[in-house]
Write a structure and sequence with these properties.
338 residues; alpha/beta; Nucleotidyltransferase, domain 5; 2 domains; 5-stranded mixed sheet; 44% helix; globular; binds 5'-O-[(R)-(carboxyoxy)(hydroxy)phosphoryl]adenosine; binds zinc ion; iron ion binding; tRNA N6-adenosine threonylcarbamoyltransferase; Gcp-like_dom; acyltransferase
């Protein structure tokens, strides 16, 4: 079975093609992504209207490249992200998926973007056992419990305000580092002291939800710190601020992910989303997983960011699990939960 996945929930137009191997794994046949990230850079964040327009322009060429790379005329099934994501952006991918499904006379399967971030890891690391997944990007921060990729996923927690990657972007902007700020801030943090400034760890008090996150207090604490330096005429120690901020984010994310594994008796933790490129998040996750005997699975960076392969891979699991095709009138679901 050859499955083609379409992804357009944010600023990446992705078309991926995989072959289902029948043993809980897939083989990658094509992975084509066109990103509009450069167009958003001058606004300091993703502009929904700009993203939708870029999807419109890129969808057909990306599809053409993917089919050529895989050497196929048409797949056996199409899967598409219906949510969560930007409403206008999702509409482009879903409309394209319906049109191709109709034209090729192949079944269409609507899937959840978040499950794709977990499923994609099977490409590199084999069948997925029961796991906890921590998804961190510019748009989402989720802690999930996955028993089987073909079954509904349970959300354990999410952010009550900013996404983790968004917090990186906002703090980077505050420090004048440009957009997207995560990679620059990560590099700068290597030169700083992570214990120089005691920034707050949001939602870690005894009365806070066990698995939810909050990053807006941390972002405000960084802003106050920078303002204080300015007021006192002291140069902002940017590397120390970056390192201390990054330490606070990585600390909370890994602490809650490990807590979820321990509480549920789950021994596999999967990371996904663009912000998992963060070096401190990775090293702290490795350290803490090793200490607790938890297996850590992290897809390679290329597959951590949004792409069509993750949607094709999740789709293959869902189809093999016996799901019924979606109707060609299936709506988008921008606020979709898992
Ligand atoms: O998954 P992704 O490519 O797409 C969106 O969410 O749109 O994630 C991008 C996010 C951005 O917020 C970016 O700043 C963050 O991931 N990011 C990082 C790093 N690399 C990317 N955050 C922290 N450290 C990094 N090394
Ligand atoms: Zn994503």
């Amino acid at each position: 079975m050859i499955v083609l996945g379409i992804e357009s929930s944010c600023d990446e137009t992705g078309v991926g093609i995989v072959r289902w191997n029948g043993d809980g794994t897939t083989t990658l046949l094509a992975d084509e992504v066109a990103s509009s990230v450069d167009e958003h850079a001058r606004y300091g964040g993703v502009v929904p209207e700009v993203a939708s327009r870029a999807h419109l322009e890129e969808m057909v060429p990306t599809m053409r490249r993917a089919r050529a790379a895989a050497g196929i005329d048409k797949p056996d099934a199409i899967t598409v992200t219906i949510g969560p994501g930007l409403a206008g952006a999702l509409l482009v991918g879903v409309a394209a998926a319906k049109a191709y499904a109709l034209a090729w006379d192949v079944p269409l399967y609507a899937v959840n973007h978040l499950g794709g971030h977990v499923a994609v890891d099977t490409l590199e690391h084999g069948p997925m056992p029961e796991c906890v997944a921590l998804l961190v990007s510019g748009g989402h921060t989720h802690l999930l419990h996955v028993t089987d990729l073909a079954e509904p996923i349970v959300e354990l927690g999410t952010t009550v305000d900013d996404a983790a990657g968004e917090a990186f972007d906002k703090v980077a902007r505050l420090l004048g580092l440009g957009y997207p700020g995560g990679p620059v801030l990560d590099a700068l943090a290597r030169e700083g002291n992570p214990t120089a400034i005691a920034f707050p760890r949001g939602m870690t008090g005894p009365r806070d939800a066990r698995y939810d996150f909050s990053f807006s207090g941390l972002k405000t604490a960084v802003a106050r710190y920078v303002e204080k330096c300015d007021r006192e005429g002291v140069a902002v120690p940017v590397a120390d601020v970056a390192a201390s901020f990054q330490e606070a984010v990585a600390d909370v994310l890994t602490m809650k992910a490990i807590r979820a594994c321990t509480d549920l008796g789950v021994t596999t933790l999967v990371l996904g989303g663009g912000a998992t490129a963060n070096s401190r998040l990775r090293s702290l996750a490795e350290e803490r997983c090793a200490a607790k005997g938890i297996t850590l699975r992290v897809p390679k960076p290329r597959l951590c960011t949004d792409n069509g392969v993750m949607i094709a891979t999740l789709g293959a699991h869902v189809i093999a699990g016996g799901a019924k095709p979606s109707s060609l009138t299936v709506p988008t679901d921008p606020g979709m939960s898992v």
